Amino acid sequence: MKKNNIDVDRFAALSNLELSEESFGPLKKDFAAIVDFVGELQRADISETEATNQVTDLENVFRADDVVPFPHHRAIIELSGRRHENLFRVPGVFDEETPHED
Amino acid sequence: MKTDLTKLDGLALRAKLTAKECTCGDIVEAYLKAIAERDGDIGSFLFVDGHGVHAAAESLDARIKAGESLPPLAGFVVAVKDNIAVKNMPATAGSKILEGYAPPYDATVISRLRTAGALIIGKTNLDEFGMGASTEQSAFHPTKNPHDLTRVPGGSSGGSAAAVAAGFCTAAFGTDTGGSVRQPAAFCGVVGMRPTYGRVSRYGLIALASSMDTIGPITRSVADARAILSVVSGYDGADATTLPVARKKQRRKRTALKGLRIGLPREYLEGVTDRQVRTAYDAFCERLRVRGAALVDCSLPTTPHAIPTYYVLMPAEASSNLARYDGVRFGHVGRNDLGHRRMYAQLRGERFGMEPKRRIMVGAFTLSAGYADRYYHAAQRVRTLIREDFEKAFRNVDVLVTPSTPTVAFPLGSVSDPIAMYRQDVFMSAASLAGTPAISVPAPAAGPLPVGIQLIASQGGDEILLDVAEGSLAV
By the CB < 8 Å criterion, does A30 face chain B? Predict the structure, then answer.
């Protein structure tokens, strides 16, 4: 990644992707090429231009803060392969030894 | 001689039902037979719901027999790209990470289709999460072009376009973020439309890039696309980006082209090197002129920046949208013996294909501190220039006409470089960034392989787009 001087490992970690040895090499090469390619947009003159966040000019959409019944709750919980009563079961998050990568 | 029902468009099938010349069961049977005989070679479907579609056809036939009036999409048998939720059918988005996931609800477009009498036949193949232009990036198998089995059908809605072209269904839904309905429609010789952003609800769509994602029909005729859009369009409380009211008053259908001003954007034409594409495009423009339209030279000067802009914004949004695949809630379950961080990263590393990994990492990069101003925020500003290009052009013309793709369908395996694949969207991505509607129609008598012609209108101009498309193809 010399050309762009970008730490690919860091962005794999930020992306929550554990990469195998055989995929890391090609991804590193492609990543550099893609960053160079999209860098072409720097040639556009945007000195006088505002950003576009939304194309149809809709304003923020608010609704009443009312609790309404949701019919699919149980069915969605049951999609998970690991659950406890009406909850998803996940590994503990407070006693994990793995350090925070970023 | 008995009519081959698989060769008719939806409105012709509906007319046959009205005349009692066939039943919904006959139509479904014809498609299932065609799929059984030929989809082994083409690979357009990931899931065929033979039992369900038979049952739905029997039910509709019984209602018709009992004297109920025909619903507007009776006779339409629709295939659905596998990134749209259909209740209790798989929804893999072409990815191993969602293998085994079957949503418990219908997307809004599906519930509206069902209410209108359409029948759902199954789920079609795609590039993983819609990331590709050939359907070779599906985690399950590539789809082949029905016109030439050595070539790609385009992508990412390649399964949907191939299924319509092969006569496996009346119509199909695809999704178009940067061209994924229009490009495969062009390669497969069928009609594919990207509606105005916000016209069709995305509730139930597996999101890729939310500021550009649209759901659009792939059909055998423009009239069928119009019929489907008229049913699925409109505000949906479940999708806050749907437009609250029709932007323009409904007009009388206009298929005469006389008096219309049609723009030929020169930046698009400079990129056409394929002789078959250029010849078909020129012949199509001449057809428009002979039918009374005025052809006008015009310029969209920011066009060369559209692909780099798209490939900053789309991965940025995708990296955020695909963060939800965590090995807990959907599809494949992560290993419980690892801590939560490793469970998450290990599953994602193992189950995402190469293209999602590339784009998630690029998205994380362009959004990260130190790079966001140079890439993500700059791309948002270039997006404004692209919108302004279209706004200026549409002050002078009603519709723009361009080739849909720079070449005809390319051979399977011939484009392995990711950036070369990204460039396949060269004529598509600007309209996506601007939120305008666009349609690809097959150029009449183009040659051995289909050529698509793209028509683009201003936001809310879906009806005029359909009118011009229909008027230009009318015999």
Answer: yes
